[in-house]
Amino acid sequence: MGLLFFLALLFGASCAQLTENFYDQTCPRLPNIVRQEVKRAIETDIRAGAKLIRFHFHDCFVQGCDGSVLLEDAPGIDSELNGQGNLGIQGLEIVDAIKAAVESECPGVVSCADVLALAAKQSVDVQGGPSWRVLFGRRDSRTANRTGADELPSPFETLEPLKKKFEAVGLDSTDLVALSGAHTFGRSRCMFFSGRFSNFNGTGQPDPTLDPAYRQELERGCTDGETRVNFDPTTPDTFDKNYYTNLQANRGLLTSDQVLFSTPGADTIEIVNRLGSREGTFFRQFRVSMIKMGNIRPLTGNQGEIRRNCRRVNELGGEAGHDVM
């Protein structure tokens, strides 16, 4: 009873409408279908998992977890993909493949927002990270929010703006540090961190929180701004706690990574040390924070729709998917 009460407090009233068994009757093989497609994608593109979890993150931070990030430009739709925070985001074709496989077996049943939530979980699990029980029942928005996508957390931001953006969606400092741990895999383009190499913030000097040997390694690897570099220089394709040991060694790739550990007096320093102390500690907190993030303002019940094609809204008056509960 105590655990159930804790979970109710943690996830809020909206989560009561999301359930683990939402698709048990209408699409019972959903987890297996998505896992198979995620594994297939990672086999051909090692960055696929990181791409999928980024889509889920960017979806939930803009008007809630509603699949709006996937909508392309159309009459009445100014795509979030055009927003400053989504420039260069990749993997839409991977989402398409997963959705197509789901539609083949369970047509008109599973929302794109739920596909993103489950694909993010499977991506982490397949690459050595923790597993968790995804709650389902999100529905897809018929609108996008380009302005919101312009205000997504930035790789150039210092700690206080990052904390404010997380607080605005109900996430605290622990969630910020735990979810940033997803940068234990994936790549970043050099344009997002090369400003740390010299004349950092107009000082005429490199970023003092960037390890000099690591800086030289990055400079050699960055032939231009489009070059991609591993987030984690130690185990780049494995989901583990090395993100935090990298921060402790001043080897965080982005400004927004390193400020979690290098901002004097910050409450995030202790959290970095705690999550970096044992892999199990990081994994447990990552599970909690991912579930919490996945329940930011979902559309449920009769809100929104079940999109057949994640890139565009259903045609009114046509087959729009059906309710499952």
Automatic annotation (TrEMBL):
Heme b binds at H183. The record marks R54 as: Transition state stabilizer. This is Peroxidase. GO terms for cellular component: extracellular region. Its EC number is 1.11.1.7. It is found in: Secreted. InterPro entries: Haem_peroxidase, Haem_peroxidase_sf, Peroxidase_pln, Peroxidases_heam-ligand_BS, Secretory_peroxidase. Disulfide bonds join C27-C106, C60-C65, C112-C310, C190-C222. Substrate binds at P153. Binds 1 heme b (iron(II)-protoporphyrin IX) group per subunit.
